[in-house]
Design a protein that fits this description.
182 residues, alpha+beta, 14% strand, binds flavin-adenine dinucleotide
Length: 182
Amino acid sequence: MNADIIIIGGGLGGLTTGALLAKEGLRVIVLEKNAVIGGGLQTFRRGNIEFETGMHILGGFRKGGTLHRLCTYLGIIDRLRLRDVDEWCMDEITYGEDNATYRIASGRQAFAESLAVYFPKQREQLHNYVEALYKLTDEIDIFHLRLTSEGIVSHSEQFLWPVDKFIAHYVTDQNCATFWRI
Ligand SMILES: Cc1cc2nc3c(=O)[nH]c(=O)nc-3n(C[C@H](O)[C@H](O)[C@H](O)COP(=O)(O)OP(=O)(O)OC[C@H]3O[C@@H](n4cnc5c(N)ncnc54)[C@H](O)[C@@H]3O)c2cc1C
């Protein structure tokens, strides 16, 4: 088959890009080295058991979210079986020598507040950290599906920091900082 575009890798990135380009009328081939497409977000079955390779939550599927908008544009949103996360426990993480379990709420403020339950002295820092994270995402046009107005993309100094430095700047409690690194 003749193709205008060949994409190497059938993960979320390759498949979405391929679908978008095909919708724009280009002939696309996606080459995947594995037997199953989906990359890091695939599931597979062995007998009656379904294995997830990593995926447990997909962000951006609420109305107005990036993936919701993309899938709406691609005409597949109604074919997806989506279920909202538990507002008060979108994620439950167990780690550390004491096997402590942290329940994390969904939503900008609630997210920081749910962690402040475990790290009460870091409440203000946690809120600042979350706000700073949101600010960083504002710098990424593609994340918001915005057209870049200028040809040159410039970022703030913090955007270019290594993640450890960014976390340490906001979160001073070591246990709390370790949590974020995980
Ligand atoms: C443990 C874990 C848990 C995660 N949990 C979540 C989650 O809950 N929610 C979420 O949104 N994200 C999660 N992620 C992140 C998510 O998996 C990635 O953001 C997403 O899969 C990235 O998609 P991608 O297409 O860029 O890369 P990938 O998914 O890695 O896809 C790359 C594809 O390219 C193929 N490939 C590589 N080299 C070649 C080659 N030479 N020729 C042909 N094919 C090739 C690979 O086989 C693969 O299929 C998780 C990641 C990990 C590791």
